[in-house]
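Progress note, sequence design subtask.
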């Protein structure tokens, strides 16, 4: 039996709380251990909700989000919006199965009203109706807690998954973002620009996304538009631009990197860090994980979550 002798720290992810969370995450009997905790300890754990899809292959979606939250010692909750499957007999072609609206509504209310969240992250929202529902639920929390909007429009590359939904995200959802995390394609869609071909384009897009209501915008991989190419992201807080530097890692094993990046940002915000530091930390974590990428099968590979925390 281990005893903790530290001082209870009100910054919730240090001191006793960190120790308890670490033990919750590593205990072989998590459930029993959690139930045995006094209620006041459960109530001080910081809670974070992901409203996103299930990536059955495990690299992206809520699987990535919850795994990331757990590694940050946060209490993760999920509201599932869609199930994505991949066809092993047809070149890993993706199929999307949206969840019924009322089921999503019940899940969000369970988490936000029934339990309460300190931070919210959104991922894949597969129909304009689902986007509108999520937006209606986020409305009560704007300015009260951090909200990370990952405006997922593509699964891989730049082939739009839901082309007709870009407008719904731009008009209904982006205004709730404490931080919005579009890739180059999503940024162009949100900014209503045909395509981004330079850093200057990316800066213009960031301004437009900010005007659409996002408080902070991080456009991923703007460094790939520059020469020599890097993995740098562009960060805009409404006043200043910053470049989040990163070395380009030459791999196609990037499945789930976007979801993981946005979850790290959400987790950092949940722990009380400011938006820019949260993005810098997320960039660092994802880069470390990507250095140890691995393949899941002949079609897809992903980053090593564990290495992000070393
Ligand atoms: O990486 C984008 C993404 C987000 N969410 C879900 C996914 C994917 C890509 O496959 O399946 C559920």
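Output:
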């Amino acid at each position: 039996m281990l005893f903790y002798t530290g001082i209870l720290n009100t910054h919730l992810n240090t001191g006793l709380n960190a120790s308890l969370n670490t033990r919750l995450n590593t205990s072989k009997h998590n459930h029993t251990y959690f139930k045995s905790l006094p209620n006041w300890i459960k109530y001080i754990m910081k809670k974070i909700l992901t409203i996103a899809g299930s990536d059955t292959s495990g690299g992206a979606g809520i699987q990535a989000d919850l795994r990331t939250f757990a590694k940050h010692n946060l209490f993760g909750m999920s509201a599932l919006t869609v199930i994505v499957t991949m066809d092993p007999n047809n070149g890993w072609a993706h199929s999307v199965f949206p969840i019924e609206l009322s089921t999503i509504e019940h899940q969000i209310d369970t988490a936000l009203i029934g339990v309460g969240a300190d931070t919210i992250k959104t991922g894949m929202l597969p129909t304009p109706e689902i986007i509108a529902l999520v937006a209606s639920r986020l409305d009560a929390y704007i300015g009260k807690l951090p909200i990370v909007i990952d405006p997922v429009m593509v699964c891989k590359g730049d082939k739009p998954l839901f082309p007709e939904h870009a407008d719904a995200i731009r008009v209904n959802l982006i205004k709730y973002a404490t931080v919005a995390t579009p890739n180059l394609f999503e940024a162009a869609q949100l900014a209503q620009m045909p395509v981004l071909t330079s850093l200057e384009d990316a800066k213009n897009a960031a301004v437009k996304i900010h005007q659409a209501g996002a408080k902070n915008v991080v456009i991923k991989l703007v460094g790939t538009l520059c020469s020599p190419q890097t993995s740098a992201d562009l960060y805009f807080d409404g006043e200043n631009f910053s470049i989040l530097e990163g070395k380009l890692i030459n791999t196609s094993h990037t499945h789930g990197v976007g979801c993981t990046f946005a979850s790290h940002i959400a987790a950092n915000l949940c722990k009380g860090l400011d938006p820019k530091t949260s993005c810098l930390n997320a960039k660092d974590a994802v880069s470390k994980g990507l250095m140890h990428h691995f393949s899941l099968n002949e079609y897809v590979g992903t980053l090593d979550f564990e290495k992000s925390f070393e």
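The two ends are 26 Å apart (CA to CA). Work on this subtask will continue into the next period as scheduled.
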